[in-house]
Amino acid sequence: MFQRLNNLNGKVAVITGGCGQVGYATAQRLSQQGATVIALVRKDIDSAMQKMQALSGTAILADITNSADLTSAAAMIKEQFGRCDILVNSASITKNVLPSNLDALTDDMFDSIVATNLRGVFATIRAFSPMLKETKDGLIVNISSTSAEGASNSNIAYGCSKAGINQLTKTLAKALAPEIRIVAVSPGFMVEPTSGAVKGPGANEKMAESSPLKRIGYADDIASTIEACCTHIRFATGSVFLVDGGRTV
Predict the structure, then answer these.
(1) What integer pLDDT is reported at residue 203 of this predicted model?
(2) For the purposes of burial, counting CB atoms within 10 Å of the CB of 228, is it exposed (0-12), middle (13-18) or buried (19 or more)?
């Protein structure tokens, strides 16, 4: 069951936030490996459809904070493709708010971030787990963040939501095994920050210099890790893979 896969031919991969920085890079990689890729997006469906069709895939309008949308999307995929082998939860939101600025992090902002980044991931897994179980070899990859590992300048709600993702990953890895494997991938500082960390002039260069590998991350660094989890890193579940150039060492 856990032997290396040379390709993803015949597999169907669903990617939330599939047209975002990490989501689209992942769609490109999995498509190159032969998977049919389906992006779930909550806006700009025409643009998303064009991008996915270029990869011989498709896009579906679905808000991950709306369980009815997710149930409908799963039913559409079941009817059209008959299966879901891989689920990548890359949709997330944040706002640039320093941790020291308590008043700027309003209740509504906090709730919105957690609803998307944590509850939305759980709801997506809940909607797609029946199809993933049917394959007897399903894989879920949750996109976390190194902001979950300790104090940082990221938005507090974002960091808390990603810490929750790590716990969700570990708990469901036990609950849904052996039919489904679940892992998390935690990006560090990237060229286009996704964590809500406040970025100023020279920030990329400063972060690169302080990293053991002397550069910051790109979307394809994360996508290639997800690809490896699909094809090579197959005897792993409940794991959280840090992909940060060693910054958290």
Answers:
(1) 80
(2) middle
Q: What is the pLDDT of residue 199?
A: 67
CATH of 12-243, one of 3.40.50.11270, 3.40.30.10, 3.40.50.970, 3.40.50.720: 3.40.50.720
Peptide bond into 178 cis (omega under 30): yes
d(CA 8, CA 162): 28
Tokens of 141: 């990859």
Listed residue (98, 129, 120) closest to 164, CA to CA: 120
pLDDT of residue 232: 97
**Residue 238 in contact with residue 173, Cβ under 8 Å?**
yes
**Residue-level pLDDT at 44:** 94
Sheet-wide strand order for 138-143:
58-61, 36-41, 12-16, 86-89, 138-143, 180-187, 240-243
**Contact status, residue 61 vs residue 52, Cβ threshold 8 Å:** no
For 64-119, give the DSSP string: TT-HHHHHHHHHHHHHHHS---EEEE---------TT-GGGS-HHHHHHHHIIIII
Angular region, 183: left φ>0, alpha ψ -120 to 50, beta rest: beta
Q: How many CB atoms lie within 10 A of CB 175?
A: 10
What is the sign, positive or negative, of the torsion defined by CA atoms of 114, 115, 116, 122?
Answer: positive
Q: Residue 140 to residues 45, 98, 154, 173, 247: CA-CA distances in angstroms? A: 24, 31, 25, 9, 25
Residue 23, φ and ψ in degrees, nearest 5: -60, -45
Domain regions of the chain by residue span: 12-243
pLDDT tens readout for residues 28-39? 999 999 999 999
Residues of the chain with pLDDT under 70: 1, 193-199
